[in-house]
Amino acid sequence: MTGGLKQLDVLLGEWTAVSKKYSEGRGHTSVAPTEDGKLLRIESREEDERFPHSTQLVGADESRDECTVLYYDSRGVHRVYRMSVVDGVWKMWRDAPGFNQRYIGAIKHRGRTIEGQWEMSKDGKRWDVDFDLTYTKQ
Fold it and tell me: What is the CATH number of domain 5-137?
């Protein structure tokens, strides 16, 4: 297995997030270990107040390659995602009846840039791009 939180080390640090679709604002994301390294905390804030602020707590199960993400945001949304980093690709996804979601980001420039997009699917088979999202490490 290549899983656990160690696979997410490339995500640690401070990031700026931008989207061509939502070009009116930039986001700031911080990824840091918490609970003596047993969990990761991901905090995202947007310059444009119309977009939600979110917090994610990420943990690992030693029997699985992927991590589990507990997500909540300033809109009151609570979701559970799975997350992995494999072969230079960061994935975060959730399977939910009628509203499946996934982010697939290519890690580039020695881990300094992640270029990807959020996609959604009603049936889990046909996927549509929701919006692009590119992270740049500070």
Answer: 2.40.128.20
